[in-house]
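Minutes, project check-in
Item: structure for the 398-residue chain
Input as provided by the requester:
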Amino acid sequence: MCQPPAVGLSITLSVLAESADASAALVIPSSAVGSHTDIGAVRAFASECDVVTFDHEHVPAEVLAALEADGVILHPSREALVFAQDKLAMRRRLTEIGIACPAWAQVRDAASLQAFGDEVGWPVIVKTPRGYDGKGVRVVGSPDEVADWLSDVARDSAAYAAAASDELLGDELLGDELLGGGPLAAGLLAEEKVDFVRELAMLVVRSPSGQAGAWPVVETVQTGGICTQVLAPAPGLDPELSAVATAAGLRIAGELGVTGVMAVEMFEVRDPQTGNPAYLVNELAMRPHNSGHWTIDGAVTSQFEQHLRAVLDLPLGDTSPRAPWTVMGNVLGGDHPQLYPTYRHLLARDPGLKIHLYGKGVRPGRTIGHVNVSGSDLDDLRARASHASDFLQGVITE
């Protein structure tokens, strides 16, 4: 989705695709095929680029280090990206800079998890430090429910201790697979189970020269743990909370040295002492994000154009909404009819509808596209987005 704004700006966009028929490779002519874990393939690809950026956080540390050694410009940098790759590193750093987060602890065994759960109340959330889109997350009522993970922690910690010298055994380096430990050498992240009002998200952008901006805070609607709609802006959001959350997002970007677009996923909660609306930061993503797809049609500058501007250190665009409301509906994999008759129905029924499909292989529950509708009647927009998403998925046929 960065390709259309790249064409408009006359920027040659290249992608290292996992296969020749990957979504991005189908629309970007200068696509090399290779794995993001293959140092040789990534270095060869990057040698032809002025700037390298990412559409996910899973490029291994040793690959990023090799690119830096080659003098490749990375946005975001390896130092910033670690806070999107490692949830323990993120929680530790956000706590240090005073950003509101759920109560959390680094746990390495059943005893430390039991103590945390007894302190904050069961059940608790347990996460592997490195995960993606809800993977590696469990809601547990006792340490027994993550006994397998705790066994892996013990194994990986032992491997780390055997490989690293005594002076390298600090928490900041625990878990670094380059030093001989496995992915759980640092332990697990335990968090309180938050009693939240709703889920929010906000997008910020920051350029290498320090220019920054933010789009309106949005509400993300979850169904069965999957984001099904995004409401922009978040309806009924307290103006003070909106300002505080936006300031927090911009501060995170500055303190962590983020360049490009960053999504900050949040919980809206009630302050236990005052009862006033408040926020807790849940996750960070240092890339264009699903919660910002509404900006393609609903904002003056989309997150994709803005990301290109930022990583190339161009002046940033206007983040203002184009309409009072925009609703984004995710399209999930299902029983799809032929696209042409699907388009004929949807586009005739709703001329204001914008459809964006990604060219991905279809499987149940996988996000394969989204729709956007903008206007002044939020309830009508939600109904239109739901109809279009369900029709594309095959849930409804009329």
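Outcome recorded: Residues 323-398 form a domain with the D-amino Acid Aminotransferase; Chain A, domain 1 fold (CATH 3.30.470.20).
No further action items on this chain.
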